[in-house]
Specification:
Length: 496
């Protein structure tokens, strides 16, 4: 019987392939709707060879490049799409975002003005225009005040959102894993996100350094060598269309070996994306973001928060949180230092637009009803990756509060009732860059910490610390210094 199915598949395969080649827009549309952007890029490029003026193909190709972090290509195709008669206002908004991510701030201001002239905008957009007309100089001051280091726990693939665990760190990565049946994410053709651990923070160092002392104590990974058969024209490429799973690979010098950076606990994996996470203070309760498969063929869909408690030698899954839903996503947890309030990101109905930050209180009878963090945090854009410092200050990332481009890290003080007090403030450079910056984690009384950023072209984990000349001596005070506030705007901003 199995042989019959095998031969049937062989007979049907040429027909399927011919149909995809004959109607690339159909195949592209299905891939795009299923969030399989690596596939969509292949088919939209094929469709544009047949019809070079197809505005839908241009716009969707540009967005697919953006989703897979190929920003230069996304900018190129949005620029082409906007020359078509069917160009829409959202296209100008995306184009402006990408110009900012390319550091072309005055051009971005002009594109944002076109959005505003078309009646699409708000006070955040006006503040961004005012900031960019100055070349974003207000957020680029004092870049020497903070020392930034690319860390040796990075792999060249996506690595981000570290949290402290015992004496080490846990973080997310899509670096290739060795498994009998390796699943590939259609989003970018790479591996699904998995939790990794480094057992001792003493091994976490600046990737640029390899002193004799470090080399004697640490075991470094050999340089990552790409498979010689891993090209788009190869018969051994991943998936039927040759999507490259190393699409955004950026080498990292002196990275730690696989003996020192290992998968955490694969029993918590669900064969799709896993993470980000948060622990309670005792580290016996774990809040974990997990991906659920989609109904429309997508292998990434809604996110939900799961809670695990430590039981001797394993983690035990608790009943689902009452605010999880198949209709929207909840994820990216952050526990308040008092242990009674959980912050998270969600696109549940009733928000300000996009993804918003919410918080929910723990009661004697369980978790209560989520509360939106309000207009001092959330906008019509995306607010994500919350983190609450020991001081009670909320850090998050946003692409709508005026920033240097992409997601910027902001912060705002929480008052009684856990609501934000005042408008958030932008961390400025070098904590933020023109690309996506997110995933704040502080220690040493706020003088040191970690962030995640794709400023090199892929998500990496960076360490930062205050350099000696700066005064005052805390990161929070430095971030909130009046000199970091953009001129010409009544809005204040703060610190993916």
């Amino acid at each position: 019987m199995m042989k019959c199915f095998y031969y049937l598949f062989i007979l049907l395969l040429p027909v399927m392939t011919y149909s995809q080649q004959r109607y690339p827009m159909n195949a592209a549309g299905k891939a795009y709707a299923a969030m399989k952007y690596a596939d969509a890029i292949f088919y939209y490029k094929k469709a544009l060879k047949k019809d070079s003026l197809n505005s839908v193909a241009m716009a969707h190709l540009a967005e697919s490049y953006l989703k897979t972090q190929q920003y230069s290509a996304a900018l190129k195709w949005y620029e082409k799409a906007l020359k078509q008669p069917a160009a829409d206002t959202f296209g100008y908004y995306r184009y402006a975002q990408l110009l900012a991510m390319d550091g072309r701030y005055r051009e971005a201001a002009a594109a944002y003005r076109q959005c505003r002239d078309k009646g699409w905008g708000d006070e955040h957009l006006s503040a961004t225009i005012a900031l960019y007309e100055q070349g974003a100089a207000a957020l680029l001051k004092d870049t020497a005040a903070v020392k930034m280091e690319l860390l040796n726990i990075n792999s060249g693939y996506a690595d981000f959102c570290p949290v402290f665990h015992r004496y080490g760190l846990l973080f997310l990565s899509d670096r290739p894993v060795t498994r009998a049946f390796r699943r590939i994410s259609g989003w970018n053709g790479g591996s699904f996100l998995t939790l990794y651990q480094v057992a001792d923070t003493a091994n976490v160092r600046n990737a640029a350094l390899r002193t004799p002392e470090l080399a004697a104590r640490l075991s470094y990974a050999p340089r990552d060598v790409h498979n010689t058969d891993n090209s788009r024209n190869s018969s051994n490429d991943s998936r039927k269309i040759g999507a490259n799973p190393q699409l955004n690979f950026v080498p990292v010098p002196n990275q730690l070996s696989a003996k020192l950076v290992t998968p955490y606990d694969l029993r918590m994996e669900n064969h799709y994306h896993t993470g980000p996470i948060a622990f309670n203070k005792k580290q016996d309760t774990l809040f974990l973001t997990r991906n659920q498969p989609g109904w429309n063929g997508a292998d990434v869909n809604r996110l939900q928060l799961d809670v695990f408690v430590a039981r001797r030698d394993h983690w035990e899954l608790l009943p689902s949180l009452p605010f999880n839903s198949a209709s929207y996503s909840t994820g990216q947890p952050a526990l308040h230092p008092d242990g009674h309030v959980l912050f998270f990101a969600s696109d549940m109905p009733g928000g300000f637009g996009g993804k918003d930050i919410y918080y929910v209180m723990r009661t004697d009878s369980g978790w209560g009803t989520p509360v939106n963090a309000g207009p001092n945090v959330n906008t019509a854009g995306d607010e994500m990756f919350p983190y609450v410092a020991a001081t009670g200050r909320l850090y998050f990332s946003s692409d709508r509060w005026p920033g240097l481009g992409g997601l910027d890290i902001f912060s705002v003080q929480l008052g009684t009732g856990y609501q934000a007090v005042g408008a958030p403030e932008n961390a400025g450079a070098p904590v933020n860059s023109s690309r996506n910056d997110f995933g704040m984690l502080l220690y040493d009384q706020g003088r040191k910490g970690f962030i995640s950023s794709d400023r090199r072209g892929n998500d990496d984990i960076y360490g930062f610390s205050l350099s000696s000349p700066i005064s005052p001596s805390s990161l929070s005070a430095w971030i909130h210094h009046p000199a970091r506030q953009p001129r010409g705007s009544s809005l204040q901003y703060s610190d993916k």
